[in-house]
Structures are given as structure tokens and as C-alpha cells.
Amino acid sequence: MQKEIIVLLGGPGTGKSTLINELVARGYCCYPEISRQVTLEAQQRGIDQLFLEEPLLFSEMLLEGRIQQFKNAKEEPDNVVFIDRGIPDVVAYMDYIGDEYPEHFTKACEDYKYSKTFILPPWEEIYQSDTERYENFEQALEIQKHLIETYKKYGYDLIEVPKDTVENRILYILDKI
User: Fold this and answer.
1) pTM assigned to the model
2) When you count CB atoms within 10 A of the terminal residue's CB, does the N or C end of the chain come out lower?
3) CA distance 84 to 64
4) Distance CA 60, CA 102 (A)
5) Which residues contact 74 (CB under 8 A, 6 or more apart)?
6) Could you give the CA distance from residue 28 to residue 6 in angstroms, rounded to a whole number?
7) Residue 122 to residue 114: CA distance in whole angstroms
8) Contact 143/16 with Cβ under 8 angstroms?
9) pLDDT for 8-33, tens place per residue?
10) Contact 81, 31 (CB under 8 A)
11) What whole-number distance in Å separates Cα of residue 109 and Cα of residue 44?
């Protein structure tokens, strides 16, 4: 069986981490979203919102981490690896805030390709802000548009996961792989 590196993407609060946690509980190899870790590390150094205060530095750190996740996924003994957010997310967020970024950001999107991409739609009923998720729901909708545009720009076919129970969303994803 060919190695499948599958990314779950979508704007903030669409249920990606919940699905990743359930996939882990079912024994699948999964890599978590790393932006919360980067944000928490910055907060420990006294920077409240690194993405807002130094978006390029934040994005560089995310890009490095997501490239490393991709490389690690290639080496996993499991034939299927799920990743919460992918490399093109970094470019989408930079485009969302209107900041420029170095050429190696786009090169990374071209060099590291995922097998499948599942996109979770914005879902206001489950959306929650917290200390690491500062966007409101309207901003989440705008981010979603940037994510769709960016992934399509890099040639991905996005498989939309319907709004449903966690169980049914998992079954939908597993059926597509």
C-alpha cells in the first residue's frame, strides 16, 4: 500500500482537532496542530499573540514545524498518517493578513504534497474562541476562503467533510481513503 499523508484543514473552530483526537483514539497515526504550541511558547516568553505581533516569525516557525511533520510522516511505519493543518495553511494565513513572505514559503507548498486533503466547513454552532484562537466567526469565514484558494492554487482537490457527528465525520473520511 502506498503511503497516504492526509491533511485535515479548515478555518478556526471547524472541528479538526476533535477529529484528530478521535482518529488517535482509534489507533491512527496523527500529527497535531502545532500553532497552539508555537503560540504558548511565545506567551511563556512574554509575547501575547506572536501571530499578531510578529506574523512572519510565527509563520516561519509554523512552516519549519509543518515541513518537519511532513518529513516525519514519510518515515512513519503506518501507511496512513493524518495531519492537523498543512504547509499551504501558512501561505493562506499570510495572504489573509496581507503580509508578504519569502519565496521559500511557496516553494515548500510545491515541494511537499499531501495525498488527500479534507476540508471542514465553517460551523457557527460549534465555533468557540479561546486564548489561542482570537478570530471571531466572520474572520474564520474569511480565513476559510483563503485556505480554499491557496490549496486549489497548489493543485489540491478538496474533499469537504459534511457537518455531522464526530462519528459520522470520521466514517466519511475513512470511507474516502
Assistant:
1) 0.89
2) N
3) 15
4) 9
5) 3, 5
6) 11
7) 22
8) no
9) 999 887 889 899 999 999 999 999 99
10) yes
11) 30
